[in-house]
Amino acid sequence: MTTEASSPRLAALLERVTPLHLLAWTLTLLVLPVVIITPLTLEQQLLLSGALFTAAMVANRFKGHFPSLVMMFLSVVVSARYMFWRLTETMYGFENPFNFVLAVGLVLVELYAFVVLVLGYVQTAWPLERKPVPLPADASLWPTVDVFIPTYNEPLAVVRSTVLAAQSIDWPPEKLRIHVLDDGRREEFRLFCEQAGVRHVTRSDNRHAKAGNINAALKNTDGEFVAIFDCDHIPTRSFLQIAMGWFGRDPKLSMVQLPHYFFSADPFERNLDTFGKVPNEGELFYGLIQDGNDLWNATFFCGSCAVLRRTALDDVGGVAVETVTEDAHTALKMHRKGYSTAYLALPQAAGLATESLSGHVGQRIRWARGMTQILRVDNPLLGKGLSWPQRLCYINAMLHFLYGLPRLVYLTAPLAYLFFGASIIHSSAAMIFAYALPHLLQANLTNSRIQGRFRYLLWNEIYEAVLAWYIFRPTLVALINPKLGSFNVTAKGGLIQQEYFDAQIAKASLFLMALNFLGMGAGLWRLTWVDDQNIATVWLNLAWTAYNLMMLGACAAAANESRQLRNAHRVTLSIPATLYRLDAPSMRCQTFDFSAGGLGIDLPTTVDIAQDTLVEVALYRGETEYRFPARVRFSGGQRLGLQFEPLTLAQERALVQCTTARADLWSMRWGNYPRVPIHRVLGRIMLISLTGFRDMFAHYGRAFTRRLRPAAGRPAGTLAKDPT
């Protein structure tokens, strides 16, 4: 790795390390084991935990990275004390093999969580926050770039904007070549590409899916660099000028990855009404983890919104085809060969999120299976070419996708005592409280500080609870036989036309919910006859079960698919515009949102315009004005809703340049989430959970009513079943 180019922050940190720092850390590491393994009484443990938590609260009041490192260190100390206590003080004295097996299962899950916690701290210890590097002033020195847009079964309406935006990238035209890699071999795509002036590329088979599609195109192109966009990821005009500068600084740089930004709501955001209010599932990875990986020269290739050096790709045999996560595996191969990678946390492209929860689950299943396949066939802890920080970053990414079984264990663990009286943690409730609560509080406080802009506390537990059962099965199969399973394409551009409760996807959550409700009933029954020594244990398990029910209620809410009212997704945007009418003077105005099909504008004064009136609206790229024919669909006060009339290809391209391809459009929305206190997060999740219970009971109430009602007596227009 070239220290200057790949990790300037790491080099600066190493330069600031003095002998005094080394001495301090050495003494700390010598004392640390004593702090972790020293047995304490209940009162001493509570006192120590309180002191460490107070120190973390004080550190949290200061800004900067060093207080964050202090909080990580304190969190590891408290969690390590908890795990040492669990392994040495709570794993004996079981009355029967059943209790022992359950106890071993729980402690293994907790060990997994502890390892992932520590590795997560390593990954995110000091995000690099790399800045773009300017290109040479002489554009004739800029390299040639092939832009690949792979597609298989997506509709042309989704792909058009991406192609037109790629043509609008600010780069010398003779050095930019656009290729639509059409594995669907569709005639309408060929005609569109011919009309747009881009290359339509096909092949005779679909071997190795997307990876094979890209590799086939690599053999028939010769650009010095390759930019890859999923067919729904629309690049901004500045994409290449932002991404390419670092390649000139580092000759061993093989890839620059930029974030995946989504301008449509994913199923969680739409169904839970959190779009734009709560960071979504992927923002932690692109907002923090990839930036943290960059410090260690361990940035992953994510399959889209990236530029790769062709010579590096050729050196590793093209895009990896051994696993279904070809992108991350390709990056691993390049790192093994000694190449560096880079990450720029500046959204310069935006795409469509998955529309349905079932599609979202299918996408995550592929990711989980693929990362588990890499763990088996190309384990980063083994083999040559990687530094230890790189190995740890990769292994943590792979371990993350093994969360299915641990999450299922956490959702059912208290039931062992409530149903069977099985004490799987052989200790008093007071000691469990004294060790477990500080571990949880310290970890949550630390992660809240580190992840605050990109992940709110507890939300990851909802995501994982929904996906746990579906992730568990393919990862288990991939661990046993990594060759099983096939590549599945994530559908984009669909429309949820009717609200419905997806009982099929929610089936696992509903089963777990029923078990926890039964466990709650069993626990309340136990309160009527248990002796005084066990009553605290019952209450502890009841509290755990109540928390699980809250999470499972939120899972039910996520499965209630909300109706999608528009074919084209609206994006908030305020830019100058001009309204032209046949019977009145032109009027300067301001947009408030846009989509591929229309535009919303704010007028300076109230104007009465009849619905269906034909108008023209002008948008601007610099000083250049572009006019678009439109029809008034809504008129109210000083607001108009316009629907575009059919546009020429030149007008479509101009519309993309003025809207989705704007250089500043997505970056100004990136990570703009305020830090939210835990009580507000809990309150919101509790409300969502109650909504989930309501949706679930309503769904099954309707189903029960339909079964009771004779088919002949069913009113016309009544659905026989929900469209699950």
From TrEMBL:
Residues that span the membrane, as ranges: 20-40, 69-88, 100-122, 416-437, 508-527, 539-560
Subcellular location: Cell inner membrane
EC number: 2.4.1.12
Domain Glycosyltransferase 2-like: residue ranges: 147-316
Pfam families, A to Z: Cellulose_synt (PF03552), Glycos_transf_2 (PF00535), PilZ (PF07238)
Biological processes, Gene Ontology terms: cellulose biosynthetic process; UDP-alpha-D-glucose metabolic process
Keyword Transferase: yes
Topology in the lipid bilayer: Multi-pass membrane protein
Pathway(s) of this molecule: Glycan metabolism; bacterial cellulose biosynthesis
Stated name of the protein: Cellulose synthase catalytic subunit [UDP-forming]
UniProt gene name: bcsA
